[in-house]
Design brief:
Elements: H1 24-47, H2 59-71, H3 74-106, H4 108-122, H5 130-137, H6 141-165, H7 169-177, H8 182-193, H9 195-216, H10 225-234, H11 238-266
Amino acid sequence: MSTTTPPSGKLVAPRPRLPRERPRAVSLTVRALGPLLLIGGWWTASATGVLTPDVLAGPPDVVRAVGELWGNGELPDALAASLTRSGTGLLLGLVAGVVLGVVTGFSRPGDELLDSSLQAMRTIPFLALVPLFMVWFGITETAKILLIAFATTFPMYVSTAGGVRGVDRKLLEAMRSFGMGRLALVREVVLPGALPSLLSGLRLSMTLSVIALVAAEEINATAGIGYLMAQAQAYARTDVLAVCILVYAVLGLTADGVVRLLERFLMPWRTLGAVR
């Protein structure tokens, strides 16, 4: 950085422009503005008759449906079943994605042996596998969980492999020269160095786990949010259908918020220089 010399001949200390801290309340208000506008437009369309109940129930009817479903225990039971499926499938997918990403990103033989096959599998839409999974595993919980695991493996794999390949090779060679073994190298150097990519993969996988959950619960579910939707469709309950759609949306938003919190906790330096 160069300094300027005023006419007097004296040097002037540089004054770097620092980002101004935005109040937390302002940030939260701006974030909430979009959803509030959507709800307001939905409410107005329902109140004026533009949106009729047979097409989509209005917000007051949806709130009453939430109270009804929560009061009779259907909504808590459905949430528990769906979260168990989604969480188990996501865990399996994350473990598989991280392991495969480390193997292909850290080992040339692993990359040559596995990457082309995994990239080919990654291009297969997981929705196309629903009939095949039903043939292989039947209409059981195993089919639903494995479908979610398949969908969430590949975003984590791609992010992990890319992050591992991006770790400084000079640092790896330095650690090897000090006698660090391969497992210790992966644990102490590679995974911490790939942490930003790992968190990006986690965000994509968590969001995709909710999308895959919708497809998985179409496999003749007898419990869960998808089962509630099937029952509501049979009885033309658009208020219950809206509740289920909102639950899926909240699950996705919550998953994204969890990853944001992890980023703030594990990588606080990423927000220090952000423009506010």
